[in-house]
Amino acid sequence: MIDSNNKLLSGNEAIALAAYHAGVALGTGYPGTPSTEILESFSALGGRAQWAPNEKVAAEVALGAAFSGARALVTMKHVGLNVAADPLFTATYTGCDGALVIVSADDPGMASSQNEQDNRRYALAAGVPMLEPADAQEAYDFTAAAIELSERWKTPVLLRMVTRVCHSKEVVTSRPLPPPPAAPNFEHNFKARVMIPAYARPAHRRLRAKLSDIAAWNEQCDLNRVIEGDSALGIITSSAAYPHAREAAPTASFLKLGLTYPLPMEKIRAFAATVKRCIVIEEGDPYLTEAICAAGIPVETKPEIYRFGELNVARVRRILAGDTSPELAPVGGMPPQLCPGCWYGHIFDVLKKLDCLVAGDIGCYTLGALPPWEVMDAVVCMGASVGVGLGMRHVLPPEQAQRVVSVIGDSTFVHSGMTGLAEMVYNPPPTGHVVIILDNSATAMTGFQEHAGTGRTMEHEQTGKISFEDLGRALGIKNVHVTDPSRDTAPFEKLLKDSLTNNQLNLIILRRPCLLIVGKIKGYERANAQGCSQVQAA
Amino acid sequence: MSVTNIIITGIGGQGVLKAAGIIADAAFRCGFKVKQSELHGMSQRGGTVSSDVRFGREVFSPMVPGGEVDFLVVFAPGQVEVNRPQLRAGGGLIAPDAVDATKLTTKQSFNVALLGVLSRQVDIPEPFWLDAIRAAFPEKTHAANFQAFALGRNGAVAA
Q1: What are the angstrom distances between the C-alpha of B118 and each of A294, A412, B98?
Q2: Does the N terminus or the C terminus of chain B have fewer Cβ atoms within 10 A?
Q3: Of residues A33, A332, A337, nearest to B46 (C-beta)
Q4: What is the mean pLDDT of residues A326-348?
């Protein structure tokens, strides 16, 4: 019953295991719930995994590996794909020689995200084939299929996960997967990979032809399954919605889609014709519904209220019953809060006392938006604090402008705050500006991942380290301050007060490792120092 | 076709996900189909952590439908009343006072003690539980966790 091929795994762990079994040469990404454990598990299995400064860079690194004939994996949460969209939209033109699997972990219901965008729209917009696993076993199988598809059609493949598939566990059966067909090797192919207009125009035509071939192949492939049942009700579904629907309507007929871009439209048409009532059950946007209706296939869809949040068995029952009455509020839990003793709280106290207008960012410090502080005036996306703060400074009357401060964490700064500093130096507001980096030496909110500012790799080994203060000075910021405010915030308060109104550019780095990680950091440093002395002795 | 539906809920740091993993593993070792679902990410910031475990001959959704919970295991006293409506009629509530925490070798194994209470009420024989606990923890904590499990299983305060 228990053997090494059957393991209780989450969807994220299953992706990692399939990538490892398939000989993926490089896994990269940026941490973000619900995607983080994929690379961590891949690394723990022995795969070569690394955190990139952000998703765009990660996608580019993975694309370079795939250009060189290797199998590459890049992981991110849904909003990360916005950052990586630029390479994505042209990587579909270039295609790849090895395999490129892009994991987008969507968060319907926003368990820990700023929006619930449905990244299936990206598949359509970029022209990237998309697989949607419904459970951990499919996460394993579809990762293997994504690699196969990517190599066969020489295209990146989007593996679109959702929170409930990422974080649900079941017994996953693994199997030997075919190894990479050849060792990495780079051959010139200017017309395929250099996207100047003259080469990109035919590349776009090649992409559309390729997608048309994949659509034809998808009509017959076993990634989409029909589960025969009662012909009175037919349900077309995919992803996490599938198991909920199976449970809500156990006797119905099902067309369970796996490869959801490009869609197997004739298969869908044939299925719809076999049932009396045909309804699409999908989480999030009406992505399947719109495509199916546009193809002239009459299907029912869910009422608009079910676009919001996750689906579950009860909600699918309501959809099937056409019930649009108000839904019961979910069980009230406690919202997250700053850990007791966290020094960020003292910083929020100062920001509140000085009546600052705070352009905030994404991380633990976003919790400063909640009572008792309520000091964050805007939180949008990774890195936005710097630009938003600058925009406010540019247009506000001086007495308000001089209260504006941008607050960003260390990992978020590495992700997309550095270009904000470049903007600040190049287009300084008349009243100057203040950027505060809250440096707790970890990507704390997602579970203490390392980043380029900690100087340690994903496995906590020593590597290159970005010094924020040196960077700030090199960019030409005159006033760069580094201080540990954890014991006494009075010096920080004075510094901030002066900086707000000095009409200059100010970078204040508040540095103190997170209480929850400080012991571990000491351990990593000890281990790295020992490693160094051993190397020197050898 | 009958499925056993369990929800475990508590606060970040109480070992909710660990306990859910042990139930899922014990059920798997016993030969059931299992699904376990959890929401985390910001749980380390003291928010509520909750996990659904479902096992039986065939399980589809990883989430227990509302009002169909057979066993509700609650780690934090403040979470009992808000979660009670999820229980089906006649479902079992295992509240934090089901175990005398002062009798534990280590406070950390409180989650395992509550699993001991649960273990008397679900269809998984004891050896599978013990194997799952053994697999879930480093060896040096095995004795404390077995003691906690036994305390819950044998010495539980009658509900």
Answers
A1: 52, 43, 10
A2: N
A3: A337
A4: 83
pLDDT tens-digit profile of B78-118?
889 888 989 999 999 999 999 999 999 999 999 999 999 99
DSSP element (H, E) containing A348: helix A344-353
pTM for this entry: 0.95
Mutate which: B17, B60, B80, vs A, most A CBs within 10 A = B60
| Beta-carbon separation of A243 and B21 below 8 A | no
Helix (H, G, I), strand (E, B) or coil at B100: coil
- The answer, yes or no, to whether residue A500 has pLDDT greater than 50, is yes
| ipTM value for the complex | 0.91
Instruction: Scan residues 423-462 of A and list those with Cβ closer than 8 Å to B.
Output: 445-447
Order across the sheet with A71-77: list the strands. Answer: A49-51, A26-29, A71-77, A99-106, A157-162, A130-131, A259-261
- A333 and chain B: CB distance < 8 Å anywhere? yes
**Using one digit for the tens of pLDDT, what is the confidence trace for A215-264?**
999 999 999 999 999 999 999 999 999 999 999 999 999 999 999 999 99
The mean pLDDT value for A396-417 works out to 98
Q: Evaluate whether A131 touches A145 at the Cβ level (below 8 Å).
A: yes
Report strand pairing: A357-359 vs A277-281. Answer: unpaired
A110 reaches B (C-beta below 8 A):
no
Does any CB of chain A come closer than 8 Å to the CB of residue B155? no
Cα–Cα dist A529/A533, whole Å:
6
Q: Which of residues 8-27 of B touch A (CB under 8 A)?
A: 11-12, 21, 24-25
The mean predicted confidence, pLDDT, of chain B is 91
Taking contacts as CB-CB distances below 8 angstroms, the residues of chain A near B21 are: 8, 169
